[in-house]
């Protein structure tokens, strides 16, 4: 990977990470509220929705942004957005049109984030030791 490409990938990693760092901080700060929302959404383990999810997201964002096993961090994001979308953005169950539209937007944002995290995983793994501006090489190799 050239230095120029590495800079572009680094910028993408950092920008992607900011979203999840911000979300992680919100989950930690609003732990009780997140748990209540998870209970209302019938999430099977509502206690995970607060600070545990926040720490997960912070670890994933630091992993990707700093380049510490960034492939693992991208998989951590993927693992988070799938249940988040399926449990918390079930627009198909809502009657109110504006709520349906808002939750559909949130679900499809999660779908896009899932796609981006999987694409980053593939990039990081295929780059191997050639990944530029990272603290460690990727954890996985195929």
Describe this structure in words.
With 142 residues, the chain is an all-alpha fold. The longest helix has 31 residues, at 97-127. The mean pLDDT is 95. The chain has helices at residues 3-29, 31-40, 51-66, 70-88, 97-127. It is elongated. It contains 5 helices and no strands. The chain has one domain.
Tell me the major beta sheet.
none
Q: What proportion of the residues form beta strands (DSSP E)?
A: under 5%
Low-confidence stretches: none
How many individual domains?
1
Oligomer: single chain
Count all strands and give the number. Answer: 0
Assign a percent range to the helix content.
Answer: over 70%
Shape: elongated
Nearest-angstrom radius of gyration? 16 Å
Would you list the SSEs in sequence order as H and E? HHHHH
Backbone structural class:
mainly alpha
The number of helical runs is 5
Properties at a glance:
about 140 residues; mainly alpha; 5 helices; about 75% helix; elongated
Summed up, what is this model?
This protein is mainly alpha-helical. Helix content is 73%, strand content 0%.
Describe the secondary-structure layout.
Blueprint: H1 3-29, H2 31-40, H3 51-66, H4 70-88, H5 97-127
Helix pairs in contact: 1-3, 3-4, 4-5
């Amino acid at each position: 990977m050239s230095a120029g490409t590495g800079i572009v990938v680094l910028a993408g990693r950092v920008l992607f990470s900011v979203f999840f760092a911000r979300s992680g901080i919100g989950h930690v700060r609003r732990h009780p509220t997140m748990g209540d929302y998870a209970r209302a959404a019938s999430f099977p383990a509502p206690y995970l929705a607060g600070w545990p999810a926040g720490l997960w997201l912070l670890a994933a964002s630091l992993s990707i942004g700093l380049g510490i096993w960034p492939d693992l961090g991208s998989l951590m994001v993927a693992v988070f957005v799938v249940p988040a979308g399926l449990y918390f953005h079930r627009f198909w169950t809502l009657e109110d049109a504006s709520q349906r539209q808002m939750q559909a937007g949130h679900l499809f944002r999660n779908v896009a984030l899932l796609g981006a995290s999987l694409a980053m995983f593939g990039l990081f793994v295929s780059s191997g030791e050639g990944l530029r501006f990272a603290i460690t090489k990727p954890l996985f190799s195929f």
